[in-house]
Here is the input.
Amino acid sequence: MKEVAVIGVGMTNFGELWNKSIKDIFVEAALKAIDNAGVDHIDSMYIGTMSGGLFVGQEHIGAVMADYLGMNPVPATRVESACASGGTAFRQAYFEVASGSSEIVLASGVEKMTDGVDVTAALATAADQEYEVYNGVTFPGLYAMIANAHMHQYKTTREQLAAVAVKNHRNGKNNPNAQFRNEITIEQVLNSTLVADPLRLLDCSPVSDGGAAVILCSMELAKQFTDSPVRVIASAQASDTISLYERDSLTTLKAVSDAAAKAYKQAELKPDNIDIAEVHDCFTIAEIVVSEDLGFFEKGCGGAAVEEGKTSLEGQIPINTSGGLKSKGHPVGATGIAQIIELYEQLTGQAGKRQVKDARIGLAQNMGGSGASCTINILEAV
Amino acid sequence: MKEVAVIGVGMTNFGELWNKSIKDIFVEAALKAIDNAGVDHIDSMYIGTMSGGLFVGQEHIGAVMADYLGMNPVPATRVESACASGGTAFRQAYFEVASGSSEIVLASGVEKMTDGVDVTAALATAADQEYEVYNGVTFPGLYAMIANAHMHQYKTTREQLAAVAVKNHRNGKNNPNAQFRNEITIEQVLNSTLVADPLRLLDCSPVSDGGAAVILCSMELAKQFTDSPVRVIASAQASDTISLYERDSLTTLKAVSDAAAKAYKQAELKPDNIDIAEVHDCFTIAEIVVSEDLGFFEKGCGGAAVEEGKTSLEGQIPINTSGGLKSKGHPVGATGIAQIIELYEQLTGQAGKRQVKDARIGLAQNMGGSGASCTINILEAV
Here is the structure.
């Protein structure tokens, strides 16, 4: 099994990109990554997209994007795991390079959501259609149930949820690609429109357009292209029940802890070896639960941790230095790749005002639905 | 890079499965494959599905199927390349085993199409939405253009197109899983309803429900489970322009010849070393063009070859011994995996009345759209 490196990255701004099609967005991100890596070709490409069919009426996204990128006859494969599509696409590229089948592979994600007619309904196809969606629940409702359970069981407060959004906007302010670059206050979160009790508008990641791409190659080849490749030291994935009602507990996301256990084992690391983490804060409660399930904090202590600044840029484990899904934006398929990009920039010292000092090991946690799938990739500065 | 084997297979009947949901169909196929292989666990699973979103309103198919198969927390990833989704899913499983990341991996495909409201429109999302579909073309129209060009350039006849359907129904009659198990005549094809000139109803593969699954593991592990594993000696993929209008020629499918060149090189074989082939006969003309682009016949001679019986069960290179998409059915995501199953059954001498004598090397060619993506997998009896 070959060692795998990330050698270049590129992404579009995330936001409401009214003047760009899904093809434009993908091509912009992919060309930036290719240019950044300095490669003169790619052997294969993966595209994470949740629902080209429902958002823009276009399936067969792999072939479409290879064509518009001018890359025919390069193999191009679309991968989908709902909101974890990007993390999964990265993992497939990792396997292809690790197997020795290909040398240079592009892993990417793209989503064009603002053109969609009914985005909430399209997103809801990531939940169980027969037992959840048919009965009227959508994702804000599912995560609201998780939030209520966590608040009940662990005395997590409404203010602690808000603190996640406040921190992530503070980080996103310094991310030139972020959708929302404004700071917000606890009061603004608490006074924003109620979406699904207790979650309010500013607890929710936005609907976004955006694309992101990274270039992977074997560690031995990486040295030809860069002095600062980033090594992939773990790539893990797990699944959990598609529906919340089937789970033993609402306050833990088992796919996250299962994938984390595998990733830590593969990397021979413990949670306190991780210097920075990008986690899937589709709703504020998600970041709190995930920060516990990754082992950064004891179960039930994630809310207090964010309130005490332990996950801030200067804290014990900076989380979502990019601004996270909340501030950076959440073009579903692109999110997992954008997480890898933030790790790459941090681990190579290119994160500007967001830079975490001496960041050497970073973890990206990307999940689909209400945690029915989860990928965890761990990267290390060389 | 580890050698990879197929050690077990399972599929549902293909057809109009009104009393089964997409979950039922998948689980039936997957359990049959697991049982057939005799494994007590799987490490990972892939599901090829073209459009769960448009056909049944369900994305996140990987997680859904892992759950309903009772396999949580096993990683489950959905792969999509339109009608080549199954072949692509097989290839991803191949990479994962070849890399040494996992030992036993399930590769599968499933589609539930008969519940769809507008199946032709959903299928058309595999073509370019902006330049093809917007102008009114759907897949019968695209393949009709290819047929007209081939008939004009190479004097391919209407009867030769019909001969593909007649041969495939003759084979499918002996496939217990086939959707149509009736023989048809040249006259019946020529007199069937005109769909898109020159293609008639009996030139077209049907709308189908169905699932198919195979179990892959490393060659060294395979010996623990079976005395007759089938070795994967090549897995290749290529892309071409998404739209027909961009191509230099309408009478060749470049993704097929590109993928074939790579596959033959990897396997160190030539076309005449192939004993049997399953090819993507979504329309009769497709089988003719593909049989040429795979190198079985000179360009322009594919029509005569089928008419002369060269691709029949007793011919020089039996093609679509399963009945092909035309007779066996074409539940889009499952098709590529069902091709692998036919090869496995032939190469292990389990194909009953369809058995090709001394078949040792088989090729499966699966393609998406009007050939914008193509996978070719070559298997060898051990």
User: Anything to note?
Assistant: Chain B touches chain A through 67 residues (CB under 8 Å).
